[in-house]
Design a protein that fits this description.
Elements (H helix, E strand, L loop, with lengths): L4 H14 L12 H8 L3 H13 L3 E4 L3 E4 L5 E3 L6 H7 L4 E11 L3 H6 L8 E10 L2 E11 L10 H4 L4 H8 L6 E10 L2 H6 L7 E10 L5 E10 L4 E3 L9
Parallel strand pairs: 3-10
Antiparallel strand pairs: 1-2, 4-5, 5-6, 6-9, 7-8, 8-9
Length: 242
């Protein structure tokens, strides 16, 4: 089966970006120039650029052109950092889409994970995170209510600050460790709707439990993250004792 022309065009441009022919922040040639270079139609060129954009290599801005973007952000799993902090460190503009803060009775699994007594409540913070104009993640944070009282009054603040920043600055909490599981799968109808996807792509499904110094779990967060725009890195050191 012959490889479609738009894939071939995209592969050539991808290689040139990776080899430094086009640097981060530089403009790619115009669509007209690419049509002439590859003897291809406008539809083929736009399909190739669309794939590069989905791969996180470029960003197309109306009135400016096609810009080479920095490689997708990497979260180092040896450090307790938030999703927002990882993005901002890379100079990515982070915004909040849909946002809700509710005081609820936790589902049994959440209550068990947070070691809650019967009747204890949690705040459920749900929000879409937008990076450089694209929905990149949907996060559901369950936080022990008596540790973060009146969190609902900070809803507007959550639109402009990361949750961990608020926990440290407003509640004087010290986050010391977390346990996180990461799975990947192809997006389904729910993920496609939440993240405004036009096709099925790989996504990360992560579950993190965060602890305070005394060893008390106080937060559980479930995240769905676009794997084409985000990456995890694990730091390993030393061999196990035998």
């Amino acid at each position: 089966m012959q490889t479609p022309l738009y894939i071939k065009v995209g592969d050539v441009l991808k290689k040139e970006i990776q080899e430094g022919t086009y640097q981060v922040g530089e403009l790619l040639p115009t669509e007209d120039q690419l049509e002439k270079r590859f003897s291809a139609s406008r539809t083929t060129i736009r399909s190739a650029l669309g794939k590069l954009e989905r791969d996180g290599l470029i960003i197309r801005k109306q009135g400016k052109g096609t810009i080479v973007r920095e490689a997708k952000p990497i979260q180092n799993l040896n450090l307790l950092t938030s999703f927002t902090e990882t993005l901002k460190e890379k100079g990515i503009v982070v915004e909040t889409g849909d946002l809700s803060v509710e005081l609820i009775s936790p589902p049994p699994k959440i209550a068990h994970a947070l070691n809650l007594a019967k009747g204890q409540k949690v705040y459920l913070v749900r929000r879409t995170r937008i990076a450089d104009g694209y929905p990149i993640a949907f996060m559901s944070n369950y936080l022990v209510a008596n540790i973060v009282p009146q969190l609902e009054k900070r809803k507007d603040l959550l639109r402009i600050k990361g949750l961990y920043q608020i926990l440290e600055e407003d509640y004087n909490l010290k986050l010391v460790r977390a346990q996180e599981t990461i799975e990947s799968y192809l997006s389904g109808p729910l993920e496609m709707d939440i993240l405004q996807l036009t096709e099925r792509i790989p996504v990360f499904h992560t579950v993190r439990t965060t602890y305070l110094p005394e060893g008390k779990p106080f937060e559980l967060v479930v995240s769905i993250i676009r794997a084409d725009r985000y990456e995890y890195r694990v730091y390993l050191e030393n061999r196990p004792q035998r």
